[in-house]
Design brief:
about 375 residues, alpha/beta, eight-stranded parallel β-barrel, 13 helices, about 40% helix, globular
Length: about 375
Amino acid sequence: MIGLFDRLSRPLLRALEPEDAHALAIKALRYMPVPRGAPDVPELAVRAFGLNFPNPVGLAAGFDKNAQVPDALLRFGFGFVEVGTITPRPQAGNPRPRMFRLDGDEGVINRLGFNNEGAPAALARLAARAREGGIVGVNIGANKDSSDRAEDYVRLIETFASVATYFTINISSPNTPGLRDLQQANALDDLLARIVDAREAVRPRSGPTPVLLKIAPDLTLAELDDVVGVARKRRVDGMIVGNTTITRPAALRERDKAKEQGGLSGRPLFKLATRMLAETYVRAEGAFPLVGVGGIDSGPTAIAKIKAGATLLQLYTGLVFGGIGLLAEIKADLVAAVKRGHRDSLAAMVGADAAEITAESWPS
């Protein structure tokens, strides 16, 4: 059933303007019955942030911005789904067109700008599916016109704590002016202190909710030192490495589209994001697990992320070009890698190549 859906839908979706294709995909998932796949094999099970994941492959934020279809996505076989980015108030985002496929590079540029229906709409949907189970994280961000962006994050922690399996603090999107400034040491320290305090304040009624920090792949190594240091000091539960990049690799084929402003994702991001993942892994020194995202489009790239330091993985742009069948392909390759290494789980692979990667020349 899933394979049939994939074969029938991909040509249609690729023929549409990217944002229209996305809207159609969401609508289809809302109304199309998706059968639940077979349970994952034990070799894929992962424990991180105090949570038990049936497999390490999740769907990144940006697809289900308004928490409309997390359960359909879980039935496809994702180990977890991250909804959002959600802001306190509804936000239209930047003017269209604001998404661009780089077909020759298998990449996407977006400058969406946190377009979403706002916290009340997402909260209602997540509350309605609260008994469904599954790991559903909530990616939160500040409104573009907010006078106190840190307060936006605090309000969202308070709002969603009872329905979020975990939170992702998104301060790394390049499409909200000034947002990435929150990655600077002093601002980040204040922000995380307030977020952790808010999480602890609601813990008695909501239980423990892990907090993850999502960073940009464009940080300098000195900035990364500061970010990881603050994250460790404030005892966040994990980090996601990383968001889209504002850089444009020299090897891009789609030169005209590459001139569009916004964040680049997909295959062209893989080398940079994986290098930043390894750099983060060696700095974290096991203080918390990492989620690797950026350019995963095959089993080998997924395995490379794990060996660079990822305990968990997230997909998005790879699905645009590889279809939903990519998920099953990656999981099969992960199981094969475990068996080849005569291991019981993926844990022994995490970070195996990190030190070697950090010694390589910087990706260009």
